[in-house]
């Protein structure tokens, strides 16, 4: 195993492609929280309530998602602390399973995962912007306008992140505080004003037909979309100060804060709206606020969601391109992608490449299509990256600064739950074809690898 390094240095060219360490603990937490709280908590509850139309199943799936995310975060803390290098999952998969699986992860991030994530988040930004301006994003021509606004948002955030990590981190810090505070304000209004009026909509807890294992699994996929982001900090690990201490703390503290506010948000939604109302609430937070304090509530929520999704797009463009940077630096992608801007000291080619593909996705796909693509493709590599701890612990020189508590139960639970979700998606008639399509794109990376970088690596 390569020992942890404080910078990324090309193995092929011998030239330094160094990204300076400028993220402290609070900025690191802001990256994690800001990347995670994006569109999911504001957009996913309707689809989840449609699959699980009962208060108890609805809350149970969010609790399950929180446990799932925490198991992953606790394991990731060990991996990130031991290997604080740019690229995150790419590094762990490469060190544990080899170059081909690492390439497939980067290939999937390039062709599916990162573009779908940016597209889904920026689409929610565009829809709430139109709603806040008084237009219905579900109706023509505003449904088309939403795609173009989303594309422009991605382009703007790409420019900010090219200009420098400092500016990207400032945007992330500000929007994280604003979105967390705004979401907490919505929660307090619901609990203080809404709950006394309605008494809540928590009974009957589990109406007939409100739960099935298959539906729970599909709903959990949507919950994971909302929770995803707990691993993104690892992708900028090469730019975190004192990483052996900072990364584990930021990953665990950030994930716990996400679980806390997500559970409160769902309690708040149920305090104001019935499950049937949530099922029909495409923009649920706006509907809650409008019912509580009228049109001003829609404006309040629109501002909160705009800041939330804006920050999440920024966080995704701050973290995701570092994967392609690390790949190129390792000889698994075009060398130019590992270029560091001479003035701004950012991986500008990787950022621009990521943004370009995301813009193409957002112009031709809906939010639901983008979210499903993202989660399905991510699940495969969750297993490989978190499962890497089993392989790496067999090495005699493995000495991480922190170790996963309750090992091997925690990473095993995470991997088994992820495998269940994949199998469940394949067994569902509506999800089988899209899931197989995602797998097909991932496997297409195998011949691409052997026709390109794999063939070069095999030469004497």
From TrEMBL:
It is a multi-pass membrane protein. GO terms for molecular function: L-amino acid transmembrane transporter activity. It comes from the Bacteria. The keyword Transmembrane applies. Its main location: membrane. It is found in: Membrane. Pfam families: AA_permease_2. GO terms for cellular component: membrane. The chain crosses the membrane at residues 23-42, 62-81, 102-125, 145-165, 177-197, 209-230, 250-272, 292-313, 348-367, 373-392, 404-427, 433-452. Keywords: Membrane, Transmembrane, Transmembrane helix. This is Amino acid permease. It comes from Gemmatimonas groenlandica.
């Amino acid at each position: 195993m390569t020992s942890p390094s404080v910078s990324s240095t090309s193995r092929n060219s011998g030239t330094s492609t160094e990204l300076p360490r400028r993220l402290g603990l609070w900025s690191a937490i802001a990256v994690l929280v800001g990347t995670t709280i994006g569109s999911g908590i504001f957009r996913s509850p309707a689809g989840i309530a449609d699959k699980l139309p009962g208060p108890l199943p609805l809350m149970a799936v969010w609790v399950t998602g929180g446990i799932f995310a925490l198991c992953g975060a606790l394991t990731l803390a060990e991996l990130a602390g031991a290997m604080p290098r740019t690229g995150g999952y790419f590094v762990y998969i490469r060190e544990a399973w080899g170059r081909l699986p690492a390439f497939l992860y980067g290939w999937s991030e390039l062709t599916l995962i990162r573009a779908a994530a940016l597209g889904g988040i920026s689409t929610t930004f565009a829809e709430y912007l139109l709603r806040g301006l008084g237009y219905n994003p579900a109706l023509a021509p505003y449904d088309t306008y939403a795609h173009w606004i989303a594309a422009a948002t991605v382009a703007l955030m790409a420019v900010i992140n090219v200009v420098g990590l400092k500016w990207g981190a400032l945007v992330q810090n500000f929007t994280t505080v604003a979105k967390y505070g705004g979401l907490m304000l919505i929660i307090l209004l619901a609990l203080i004003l809404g709950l006394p009026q309605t008494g809540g909509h928590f009974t009957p807890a589990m109406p007939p037909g409100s739960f099935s294992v298959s539906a729970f699994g599909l709903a959990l996929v949507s919950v994971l979309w909302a929770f995803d982001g707990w691993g993104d900090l690892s992708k900028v690990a090469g730019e975190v100060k004192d990483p052996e201490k900072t990364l584990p703390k930021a990953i665990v503290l950030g994930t716990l804060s996400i679980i806390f506010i997500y559970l409160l948000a769902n309690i708040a939604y149920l305090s104001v709206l019935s499950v049937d109302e949530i099922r029909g609430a495409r923009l649920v937070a706006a509907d809650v606020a409008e019912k509580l304090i009228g049109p001003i509530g829609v404006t309040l929520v629109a501002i909160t969601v705009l800041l939330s999704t804006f920050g999440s797009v920024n966080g995704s463009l701050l973290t995701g391109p570092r994967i392609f940077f690390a790949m190129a630096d390792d000889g698994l992608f075009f060398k130019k992608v590992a270029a560091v801007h001479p003035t701004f000291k950012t991986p500008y080619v990787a950022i621009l490449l990521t943004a370009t593909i995301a813009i193409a996705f957002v112009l031709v796909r809906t939010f639901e299509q983008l979210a499903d693509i993202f989660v399905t493709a991510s699940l495969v590599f969750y297993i490989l990256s978190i499962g890497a701890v089993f392989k790496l612990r067999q090495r005699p020189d493995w000495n991480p600064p922190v170790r996963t508590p309750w090992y091997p139960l925690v990473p095993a639970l995470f991997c088994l739950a992820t495998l269940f979700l994949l199998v469940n998606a394949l067994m569902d008639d509506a999800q089988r074809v899209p899931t197989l399509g995602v797998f097909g794109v991932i496997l297409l990376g195998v011949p691409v690898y052997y026709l390109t970088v794999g063939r070069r690596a095999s030469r004497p």
